[in-house]
Amino acid sequence: MKTKFREITGKAQEVLLRYPMVLLMGLLSSVGAICMLDSKNKKELLFTHTKFTICCCLGISLMFALKILSQRIGKRLLLEVLGTVFLVGFYFVLPGKEREFTEVYGFIVAITFLLSHLLVSFAAFLEKNRELNFWQYNKNLFVNIFLTAVFTGVLTGGVELAILAVDKLFDFNFHDKLYLDTFYVLAIFGSSFIFLLFNETGLNYLEKDGTYPVILKFFTQFVLIPLLFIYAIILYFYSFKIIINWELPRGWVSYLVLAYSIVGILALLLVYPLKEEKAKSWVKVFSKLFYYTIIPLLVLLFTAIFTRILEYGYTEPRYFVLLLALWLLSVVAYFILNKKASIKFIPVSLFIFGLFSLIFPYLNAFSVAKRSQKNELIKLLDQNKLLVNNKIDFQKRVSDTIVIEISDKFQFLAKRKQKDFLLNLVSGKTRNLLAREFEQPYSWAFITLRDAFTNVDKTQEASTLERLVLESETKVTHIQGYQYLINFNNYTQESRDINGDTFEIDNQTEVNNNRTIRVILNSAQSVDFGPAMNKLFENNTSRTGTVTMKEISMENDLGKYHIKIVFQNMSRNKTPDNKMNIYYDNAVLLIKEK
User: In this structure, how many other beta carbons lie within 10 angstroms of the beta carbon of residue 240?
Assistant: First the structure.
C-alpha cells in the first residue's frame, strides 16, 4: 500500500515539476470560472472574469504546445515567457466592455482556440523524416484525451455524489454553489492534471513506437469508412439531381461536403501506418481513391458557396466556409500531385489558413466581411434608387422586404463599429436617433431604421415588427422629496442595501410572456410594475413611431417606503407572433420613507 501511495505521489510530483505552466493555467481557469459564478449579478465584473477565464483556458493548450516544443528544441523559459506575453496581449485584444463583445470576437476566440490545439499537434515535428513519430504522437494524444474524459467524468460524478450524500445524510445544508465550484475545479484543473499524468514524460513517451490499436482499426474499417460511403452516395445522387434539373445547389450542401471530406481525412490519418502493409490492401485502395472522390464534390462545394456570396456578399461564416473549401482544395491537390506527401501537411496547412483569416491585412475575415457588406448596402440602395445626394430618402416608396434587408445590413455593420459610415448615409432626426442608438449597451439600429421609412409597401411574405417608442421630454430626473436613488438598466439586475433593508430590482422575469419590473424588499414584499408599463403603451396603442411624453414614470408603496421609477425612454416591439417585447435603457429608482 505504501509503495503504491509513493508511486502515485511520485508521479503527481513529476507532473507538477514538468508542466508547471500548464497546471497554473488550469488552476487559474478554475478560479476564473468560480469568480464568474460569484459575480453573475455584477455585469462588468462578470465580463472581466469571463475574459480572464477564456485567456487561461487558451493558455492550457498553448503552454502544453510550447512545453512539447521545448522538449525538442530547448529554450523552455523563453517559450513560456513568449506564451505568457501572448496571453496577456490576447486579454487586451478582447474588448473592455460586454456591449462591445460582438460575434466578431466570438470568431476570434474560436479560431484562436483551434490554432492553439493545431499547434499542439505539429509544433515538435516541423523537421522532415519524423512521419511515423508524428502519427504515434497524435494517436497517443487522441487516446489520452479520451481516457481523460472518462476518468474526469467518473471522478467529478463520484465527488459530487459524495458531497450530496454527506449533505443529505448529515444535514450539513451545503450551499448549491459548492457543487458548481467543485465541478469547475475538477472539470478544468482536474482534467488538466489527469491528462498530464497520462502523458508521463511528454514528447519521448508520446512519440515512441507502439502496436497499432485493434479498436482503432475496427472503428475505422467498420464505422468511419461505411459512413463515408453512405455520405458519398448521397452527395453524388444530389449532384446528378442538380445536373438533371439544371438548378443551383442548396447552401447547406457545403456543410455536407466539408463533413464528408474532413471525416474522410480523419479516417486516412487513423489508418496511416497500415497503408504499407501488404495484408491491408483495403487501406491502400481507400487511400488512393478517397481524394479523387472529392474532386467532383469540390465543384459542387464552390458552386454552392459562390451562389450565396454573389447574392448576399461575404459575412464571416461564409468567409470561413470558403477558406475551408480552399484548404480542402489545397489538401486534395497536394496528396494527388505529390508522391512523397506528408500527413503533417494537413494540420500545418490548416493552421496557416486559420492564421491568415485572423491577421492578414485587408484579406482577413473581418475586413472582407465589412467591406463586402458596405458594398452590398450601397448596391441595394442604388438598385432601389434610395440615395439622394448620398443620403437615404426615407420618403420614397419601397417594399418592406427591402427595408428589412437594408436594416439588417445596418445592424451587421453597427456591430462591427462602422458608425461613421452608417451615419453618413442618413441625415436629420434619423441621424440623431441612430447616433444615440449606437451609444446604448445593445443597439437596436435596425428597428430605428425600419421606423424611419414612411412609405412602405407590406407584403405577405415579409415578417414585420411594429415598434412604439415613448420618449421623455424631461432630460433631468427630479429627486426632490426622495432620499435614495438607484440607477439600473434593461440588462442587469441590481441589489442595494438601504437602512438595513435590501432592495432588489428584478427585470429578467416575464409574466404571461410580457416583460416586467419587480422591486423586491427583503425578499418578502414586492411591487410589480409590469401592468403600469403596459398601460403606458396601451394609452398610445393607435400610434407607431416615437411618442413624446412630459415624463415617463410610475410609483407605488412598498412596505414602509414609497418608490418611483423614472425612464428616459421605453420601446415596445410587436413581433409577428403578437408577442410584446419591452425595452428601455437607463432608468432610476427613487426611494423615500413614508
Answer: 10
Instruction: State the cell numbers at 318.
Output: 461564409
Separation between Cα atoms, residue 369 and residue 373, nearest integer Å: 6
The C-alpha cell 414585420 sits at 464
Paired strand residues for 574: 466, 580
8 Å CB contact between 489 and 441: yes
- Find how far residue 76's CA is from the centre of its chain: 32
Q: State the burial class of residue 385 (Cβ atoms within 10 Å of its Cβ: 0-12, 13-18, 19+).
A: exposed
Query: For 502, phi and psi rounded to 5 degrees?
Result: -105, 120
pTM above 0.90, yes or no: no
Question: Which is it for the CA torsion 439, 441, 445, 448, positive or negative?
Answer: negative
- Among the residue ranges 176-190, 235-249, 323-337, 386-400, the one predicted with the least confidence is 235-249
Indicate the DSSP class of residue 25. Answer: H
Q: DSSP string covering 454-476, please?
A: -SEE--SSSPP-EEEEEEES--S
* Cell numbers linked to 385: 434608387
Q: Please write the tens of the pLDDT for every residue from 528-580.
A: 888 888 888 777 765 666 778 888 889 999 989 999 999 888 887 765 555 66
User: Quick one: which of 318, 407, 414 has its CA closest to 357?
Assistant: 318
Cβ-based neighbours of 497, under 8 Å, separated by 6 or more: 503
Distances (CA, A) of 182 to 46, 149, 177, 179, 187: 19, 16, 9, 5, 8
Decide: helix, strand or coil at residue 526.
strand
Q: Is 261 exposed, middle or buried (0-12, 13-18, 19+ CB in 10 A)?
A: buried
Residues in the chain: 594
- Phi/psi of residue 556, each to 5°? -165, 170
Helices 253-270, 316-337: axis angle to 10 degrees equals 40
Q: Which residue has the cell 430626473?
A: 477
